[in-house]
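Batch manifest, entry 17 of 40.
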Amino acid sequence: CPEEIMKECPAIDAVFLGEAEASLTLAIENFADTGSFGAVPGMLSRNERGEATRTHSSLRMSRIDRVDAIPSPDWTGVDLDYYLGAKCGITQKEKPSLPIIATRGCPHSCHFCTVPNMWGNRWIPRSAESVVQEMRDYRDRYGVRHFDFIDLTLVINRKWVVQFCNELERANLGVTWALPIGTRSEALDQELIDQMAHSGLTHILFSAESASKETIEAINKKLNPDHLAMCLRSAVGANLIVKLVFINGFPEQHWHDVWANWKYIVFAAWVGIHDVVSLGFVPYPGTEFYDRLKAEGRLEEGFDYIYLNNDLKGMRSWSPSFSDQRLRQISAFSMAMFYFFQFLFRPMRFLRTFFRMLTFRAPRTNFELILSNRLRGVFSFMKAGT
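Output type: structure tokens
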């Protein structure tokens, strides 16, 4: 896979596999001393003929066990005053916000995910104390008041999450936090969700991918839709902004699997979650599905089939049951149906949302963001016309 990437992208001089803190540092030091990268574990570079070659017998550096020893990000080269002033947070548009990472890796092996190939199956957390200390530093130094945790999957070990929440509450930083990346529900229950909310959690995104048992099994997703339903109810009851993600277009997906998703979407609207996102499956290099489709001869040369999984116009179906165009219609209809039923079940939410946008309040949900952008476009057009 990395060889293919370097073949398709001549501008790339080197690729590092896995965690690159040590290997990248070694390569830079070698280049500074000798003018070449040298032999670095987990690195590919170009030879005299421009071909991608491995520089060391080790395919990659060993995983970093002591993640607390990794320094915090150095923000000195970033104009944080501009960034924070522009309210560019992922989930929070009203407070100065920064991303943060508390854990590395994921113990699961979903067939559509690149994580197992990059990280293996080890989930390694930082200590709760070091995470809270980094939050404290950003609050005191930059005035940050909200943190988006962009971990691959933060909620794996219940005991660790409890420790983090306790430590954050003891610190009394006066900040909020969110989980905008796919959160797994296995370790969650109502008590833990309530504690997370009490410690300052405001937003949570659940990655369901599918509500069909057949699809869940085909993609090797360890998900119990009934347990997820309990988590959705608990999160809404804790006054969190809740988002649910589905993926359509899997190779084994059929129409009855789509119907299972639609029934779950209506249920989610009835429960009271705030957003549903319907993405398109993409066979990313390094995944189980990529290897399978490649072996079946269904992937053409190059990477033209790779797109952002939320690019509605570019979605491609790998299912034998529906075409590319039908997949795009399924995704669009899934989201439209959710918002229709959400506001049917909760008409006051729609009125409050519309009022927030008319008064130019910062959007809190995907729907509010879309509506806000539309209204701003209309107002800009009207202003230009005058």
